Amino acid sequence: MISQVRLQQRYIAIKELYEDEAISIVLLCRVAGISRAAYYKWLNRTIPVRQEENEKLLEDIRLLYDQANGTYGYRRITMTINRLRRQQSLSPFNEKRIYRLMHSHGIQSVIRRKRKRHKKSTPQHVAENLMNREFSASRPDEKWCTDVTEFKYGTGKKAYLSAIIDLYDGSIVAYRIGRSNNNGLVFQTMMPAIAGLRTGARPMIHSDRGFQYTSRGFKRMVEDAGMTRSMSRVGRCIDNAPIESFWGTLKVEMYYLREFQAYSELTRAIETYISFYNHDRFQKRLNGLSPVEYRSQAA
């Protein structure tokens, strides 16, 4: 069913095209999908005073909107129109009236709206900060840090990378790329990392207090593997500095150097970089070795 606003727009378009371009009314009505009788009934109608006022007000709204290059929302347009009306000793318009007119005609500010404030959920299972910023490890699989970071590609699309870094050599022991930041992304990162543990290894795993890491499923997974959980304090990113440092390195050396249009293009680049980072990126703190080379020496 066609809304009254959309019908109104079609009637106006027919009238303007007929007057400006001399296009046949019959043809215009056929293209618009309305009958000639309905169009002529609209054309010869008696316009209520309020509707006539709304049409004039809508013209003023569109004029202001265009002058501001689409940056004005209904509040600023209301303020500007009423300022001009006061100068002419006219009564002001109600903000809700202007909002309804703009909303019904699809007129809205092009400026990004403020994000809605979401009520934070209560974490199910938290852990103490056992890591306590002691980021050195004497052997592989002694201390791990994990986190999720976001990448943008194409026209505002997002991808997420979940990874685990071993503090002994800085190697990425497991990672997963996905289109959604959810429990599944983190769990699918954990499973191969746990499966690849050395015999008898029971690392401490440190994370922030994100919903994935405070979930019952994550707690059970860690405990079943005989591992220990540690979590950053609220609002203290530095408590998880090693993985944060890796995100910075990855983005500076790969992500920020180019623009990615497709998800597959981005995932390939991330996978290639992590392989390079683990096997071929030599580090001074590892005696000039790559993380994998340094790790193999410990074996």
Give structural notes.
This protein has helices spanning 4-21, 25-32, 36-43, 49-67, 74-87, 95-104, 183-195, 216-224, 241-253, 263-279, 291-298; strands spanning 143-153, 157-166, 172-178, 204-207, 228-231. It is of the alpha/beta class and 299 residues long. It has three domains: 1-45; 49-112; 143-298, Nucleotidyltransferase, domain 5. It has a five-stranded mixed sheet, sandwiched between helices. Strand 1 and strand 2 (157-166) form a beta hairpin. Helix 1 (4-21) packs antiparallel against helix 2 (25-32) and helix 5 (74-87) crosses helix 6 (95-104). It is elongated and about 90 Å long. It starts with a helix and ends with a helix. The model has no long low-confidence stretch (mean pLDDT 87).
| Number of domain units | 3
Structural class: alpha/beta
**N-to-C CA distance:** 72 Å
State the major sheet: 5 strands, mixed
At a glance:
The protein is α/β, with parallel strands linked by helices and 299 residues long.
Keywords:
299 residues, alpha/beta, Nucleotidyltransferase, domain 5, 3 domains, 5-stranded mixed sheet, 11 helices, 5 strands, 12% strand, elongated
